[in-house]
Amino acid sequence: MQEFSETIETDIVIVGAGSAGCTLAGRLSEDGRTSVTILEAGGKDWNPWIHIPIGYGKTIVDARLNWRYETEKGPEIANRPMFWPRGKVLGGSSSINGLLYIRGQAEDYDHWRQLGNAGWSYDDVLPYFRKAENQEKGENQYHGVGGPLSVTDLKERNPLCEAFISSAVEAGIPRNDDFNGATQEGVGYYQTTTRSARRCSAAVAYLKPAMKRSNLRVITRAETQRIVFEGKRAVGVIYDCGGKRVLVKARREVIVSAGSINSPKLLLLSGVGPAAELARHGIDVVHDLPGVGENLQDHYGALVTYKSRLPVTVNDIMMSPLKQLQVGLQYILFRTGPLTISAAQVGAFAKSDPRLATPDIQFLFQTFSHDEYDDGLHKFSGFANAVCPVRPESRGTLKLRSANPSDTPLMQPNYLSSETDRRVLVEAIKLSRKVAEKGAIAAQIVAEYAPGDQVRTDDEILAYARETGLSIAHQVGTCKMGSDPMAVVDTGLKVHGMEGLRVIDASIMPTLISGNTNAPTIMIAEKAADMIRKQAA
């Protein structure tokens, strides 16, 4: 019989206090009759750089707040491993991400429905986007007010952003002031998850207001080791906290919301997954479920970087102690200035081929430039446009490295294994260059730093993208929703063949949506909380 230093009893235990977990904890604990315990492997979100919007430049590489995953080497990306930042703190990746509020296209969710996922069409999920949202622009058929998640306009308007928008319109991309409204296509400013010039993470929006409730328990530094089963029913989890093993017994449900890497990892460690894979590591099979860890998808992009004629970039601030002092005081005194900006300030959604029904390219225009994350910003005035195909066809896998919960899993995203992904990425770089040749932004460019003038043909552009491309950090799909043999959860997000066990986070997405994944993940959790509460009623 196993020894535990403590046993906790609760109605519902949630593993992972990220975007989904915080949302679930906040919503499910609204019912005072339901006791909820949420476990987070990371610590509290006390680091000030979490809350200052531009602080993502620090949190994205900070091992105290970030799992800092590294994938296996990719055969189609010059045999390089890829750095994957994922949040390890209350709020999860919503505490370290670039703050962009993008839902994707209506067609993304209609496609989910076409795959057999009843209840997940755009018309089905729109009410949950609206429920979550406190939209600064006000309420309409697409947007809600009064929700926990603050969505606001970018107040800092850099002249390079205005120039880029003007040139994109000149290049044939229509102006769009709401990517989350009637249509996604076009160019304009991103909206951000901020409130009063501070980050509005899922922890700030959902968890913090709920922590005063007596029926909610939040436990940090709790690394969940495995799920406990009685037959096919999940009855609790075991976590480790500084060498102490604690058992959490769940009377109603175990909810896994650990994200697209740790959710499948926990299922596998617990004996739920492909039987052959489990046997290889000596793990007893609780349920043979072949899709766990399969269907891995991510956005892979490339940077088109320019030296700026106008010294108004974040690079310029970081090269000058005086400017750093000025913008710091501006933020402290007025909550304005460059410290309030998101990772990308201007976005565009465009088509690689005019015959397409919807955009398949995303632009993320940034008023700073860099090579590798850990290297910091360039020592010159610079800006960049990150471009990526938004509906990748490449599919990867996640497998256990060992049966040791402390070991990171083996992640192979198989970036650019699809010819379509390679072609669309090349077209995206060419379109970005076309924009840069137009009036307003062209006037501010000294030179193209990367790929550089020597890179001209499609083959040369593709080689550049292979050798220097980066993850946009939108991993999904490893516990996909569906009814086919490779599906892991059903439309209620219950794990197939199991009882009392759900997965609720970005890992359940059958296909990657056309954009950033934070808002859709919160929507998934809002909808799931509604289903759980209705079932309990």
Could you explain the architecture of this structure?
By secondary structure, the protein is an alpha/beta fold. The protein is 27% helix and 22% strand. Helix 1 packs parallel to helix 15 and helix 5 packs across helix 15. The protein starts with 5 loop residues before the first strand and ends with a helix. The mean pLDDT is 97.
Radius of gyration, whole Å: 23 Å
Low-confidence stretches: none
Percentage of residues in strands: 15-25%
Termini gap: 36 Å
Largest sheet: 7 strands, mixed
Overall SS class: alpha/beta
Q: What share of residues is helical?
A: 25-40%
Number of helices: 15
Secondary structure tally: strands? 25
Average predicted local confidence, pLDDT: 97
Choose one word for the global shape: globular
Features:
seven-stranded antiparallel beta sheet, 537 residues, globular, alpha/beta, single chain
How do the strands and helices of this protein lay out in sequence?
Blueprint: E1 6-15, H1 19-28, E2 36-39, H2 48-51, H3 56-59, E3 69-70, E4 83-84, H4 106-114, H5 122-132, E5 133-135, E6 149-153, H6 159-170, E7 186-189, E8 191-192, E9 194-195, E10 198-199, H7 202-210, E11 216-219, E12 223-230, E13 233-241, E14 244-256, H8 259-269, E15 272-273, H9 275-280, E16 287-288, E17 300-308, H10 314-318, H11 321-334, E18 346-350, E19 361-366, E20 382-389, E21 397-399, E22 410-412, H12 419-436, H13 439-442, E23 445-450, H14 458-468, E24 470-471, E25 501-503, H15 518-536
Parallel strand pairs: 1-2, 1-14, 2-11, 5-6, 14-25, 15-16
Antiparallel strand pairs: 3-4, 6-8, 7-18, 9-10, 12-13, 13-14, 17-20, 17-23, 17-24, 18-19, 19-20, 21-22
Helix pairs in contact: 1-7, 1-15, 5-15, 12-14
